[in-house]
Amino acid sequence: MASTSNVTTLIFTGLFQDPAVQRVCLVVFLPVYLATVVGNGLIVLTVSMSKSLDSPMYFFLSYLSLVEISYSSTVAPKFITDLLAKIKTISLEGCLAQIFFFHFFGVAEILLLVVMAYDRYVAICKPLHYMNIISRQLCHFLVAGSWLGGFCHSVIQILVITQLPFCGPNVIDHYFCDLQPLFKLACTDTFMEGVIVFANSGLFSVFSFLILVSSYIVILVNLRNHSAEGRHKALSTCASHIIVVILFFGPAIFLYMRPSSTFTEDKLVAVFYTVITPMLNPIIYTLRNAEVKIAIRRLWSKKENSRRE
User: How is it placed in the membrane, per its record (predicted)?
Assistant: First the structure.
């Protein structure tokens, strides 16, 4: 921490100021977070226990669900408990930890989405070589690379923040710690730091999004050579991935590719990708995937039969 910093505690203004609105938010967002943990946890459990889902696609999906739980948990529990508090505080160290893990899991998710797009590309465009290319060893390597990429990204973010002096004020006009709101509290010019964050977060998100879009365009073009049944199955799987990509990247690019502001609209957009989107992912993947739904039913029936015995 910079030696000139004398701020040890930060105060959030929160999503809304009205206590009645905050109580409504508590009633809405607590079930959403619980659904996120249960829904994604069910996917992880189902994939790990179902032999029918022993393929690279579901291997990546289980890790994506694990990342979703972790990603949402960096923000949602603190946000929800703060809805009950009159003064919403966090230590400076806690704020840095939240930034680190929020960006760590966020970038790990981006890279996993890229990996899943590559997996679908090989499965659809090179089906005869799929098992040779997407080996179990490569799967573990790609997942490890996603975690490593997230770690390196977060280290850069934290190195940028820790060089800044914080002399006061200590009020963050947001409901969680992120880079741009924290920059406004630094008692020095943060133009260069803003440029680094723009490149490390904004441009990274845009380039990753373009790679994903390009991948799915190539996949859709190649589907013309498949049978009607093959096209339907591939489109169903790819549609789930594309919906998740749009839901995740849309709000992130909106916030990180434009000048920061403190409008309530920005906070609501942040709520969407920190709290809502992680809950939607398991719904999207299970509703559009017959194999996952069948595996969940089998898992549930086994549990019911064991109880009866």
Answer: Multi-pass membrane protein
- Between 37-41, 51-55, 69-73, 275-279, the lowest mean confidence (pLDDT) is in 51-55
Q: Is the pLDDT of residue 37 over 90?
A: yes
What is the C-alpha to C-alpha distance for residues 38 and 30, in angstroms, rounded to an integer? 12
- Mean pLDDT computed over 66-81: 96
Contact between 180 and 197 (Cβ < 8 Å): yes
Predicted local confidence at residue 260, as pLDDT: 56
Total residues found in the chain within this entry: 309
Q: How far apart are CA 228 and CA 194, in angstroms?
A: 49
Residue keyed to tokens 């579901």? 58
